[in-house]
Amino acid sequence: YDWLIDSYVLDFYVDNHWDRLPASWNSCFEQLEIIQLKSLLTVEAKSTECHVWPLSILASRVLLGNLCLSRKLLPDDELETEPRGQSRFRERQKLFNKSVKLKKRHEIEQFSRQCWESIRKTGVEHLVDIGSGQGNLARTLAYGFDFNVCCIEQNEGLVATARQKDEELSSRLKRQCKVADLKHPVHLSKKVNLEDVDPG
């Protein structure tokens, strides 16, 4: 299924991906009005479903619904007014910025804030950083904003560096902020090999 993994960068029509879809899907789509695609892409339970979908499409829709972020916003009275742990980031920002280039610092700070703005409305508790490099963003999210962060990076050298920097920063924060229960980023060295996934 490497063609499916790559389909987000390849032209669906030029490469004729339609012919690679299951026959039941093609048969269904040929009879489908464009307006009905909205029903297919809506993952919420429906009481007014008026089209018979192949079972594999319904199963895929349920799976995607379980894996995607919730679109339901929390009531205003349940939202935090300040980022969790942000005071730690503000008070010790120089520690977080050590060995981080100025442009990168700005990106990390802005992205961390955006993460908090999104997460506080959805109730998400865990973040995954894919291609995390040396873990600069993950450290800010975990130690500075108190998020649970899992990092995936294929370069084992970068993973080792990230873990070392985690240890250095957490030690300094524990000494200066008197914090004993920091949430540490989890760093994994993983690489997806399509030949292993689908040898044929």
From TrEMBL:
SUPFAM superfamilies tied to this protein: S-adenosyl-L-methionine-dependent methyltransferases
Entry-linked Gene3D superfamilies: Vaccinia Virus protein VP39
Top-level lineage group: Eukaryota
Domain (Methyltransferase) ranges: 103-184
Name of this chain's protein: Protein RRNAD1
Species per Swiss-Prot/TrEMBL record: Culex pipiens (House mosquito)
